[in-house]
Amino acid sequence: MTTVIPRTAVKDYGYAIRVSLIAAMGGFLFGMEVAVISGAEKTIQQLWSLSSFWQGFTVASSLIGTVFGSLLAGGPAQRYGRKKVLVVIALMYLLSAVGCALSSAWLLFVLFRFIGGLAVGASSVVGPMYISEISPAKIRGALAGSFQVNIVAGILVAYLANFLLADIGSDAWRYMLGVMAIPAVIFALLVRTIPESPRWLVLNGQDEAAGRIFARTGETDIAGLIREEHALAKQGIKERLFSGKYNKPIFYAMLLAMFNQLSGINAIIYYAPRIFEMAGFNQASAFQQSVYIGAANFLFTLLAMSVIDRFGRKKLLLTGAAGMFIFLALTAVAFNSPGGGGSSVIIYLIGFIACFAFSQGAVIWVFISEIFPNAVRSQGGSLGSFTHWIMAAIISWTFPIIVEGSPNGGFYSFIFYSVMMLISFVFIWRVMPETKGRSLEQIQQDLGIK
Questions:
Q1: CA 90, CA 101: separation in Å to the nearest integer?
Q2: Burial class of 27 by CB neighbour count within 10 A (0 to 12, 13 to 18, 19+)
Q3: Which are the contacts of 377, defined by CB distance < 8 A and separation ≥ 6?
Q4: pTM confidence score
């Protein structure tokens, strides 16, 4: 097949940055969808007289959607392209926001939460996949990490919106959930302006179009990139993800995704106001403390993104695991003290959030999007995301059951999360590879995928 390659490739990364940030807006909506329920969940529990079990299910209904979304996204992304799936994701976010805000029945509310979860799950697969495939190796960590920056920005905005809307009346929860429609419309409009992934174009025989996009993103050895992609595609064309050839990246992706949620991060994000009320804060103060959590999450994610391509993925993960172990243990001890720990809880949880954002939060989507070859990247991304969201659903569903079912539920929950972070430190230290500064093709060679 004849390929027309531009004589000179544009070295400026401005175009790659712009389109990556547009794709990363799916992460902003991801973050809002995750956090916005925290301000509404207690009102919803009272409105529909839900037990702790059904309250956990209502909150987790979005996470159940993410499980299916992460499983289903890989196929369409591989067949129809990353861009088209991102457009559909934007429309699903919009439908979920409007539907949740207007729901008059519990089942309808759960349905629209589920649709939002489908969008989150699909976004967690396709967004990082698209960004990693269009980003030059030198800045891929930072650009792929922009998806996580957008997630934490969405979480912060959701907490701020909840805090500002909390006192406007009995329908405040509807406005909290409906405000997400605004960024959903913006995302739906902007995502239509980005190009298709050049690596997907190569995989589908559109080398000339891929070459033009590679040139605009600042790649120099365009002919070499396309040859490597063709070689990898030929090697993987009859391969299945679970053929045995990809056992290493499967193992790394699944373990990292499991530990991400075994930190308890989603329980804290979803139930932040409730946790602070358990610690002795009143409702207004609980909403305010949640904003501090969101701000710490955002600031330390930005810090991690500024150093991820300099220090590497592994050093960030090891530092964060050690810090999370300490702060989660301190939180558990605080909940076991008279009065629920009071102000010490906010200090420890901000410490935990800072460590999480600097490590797991910044690295997970970057790492999973890097370690699978092009031919099975969509399947691998779906597997990592599926594992992540299965664990998130379990943690978020069981949290209210545990804390309402035992006087020391807060202690037991946080001591469990702390132990999991100690185990994760050992896994990262002894097993996990480093991918810093390596092209996607070089990473496959490092993992022994020939």
A1: 17
A2: buried
A3: 129, 133, 369
A4: 0.76
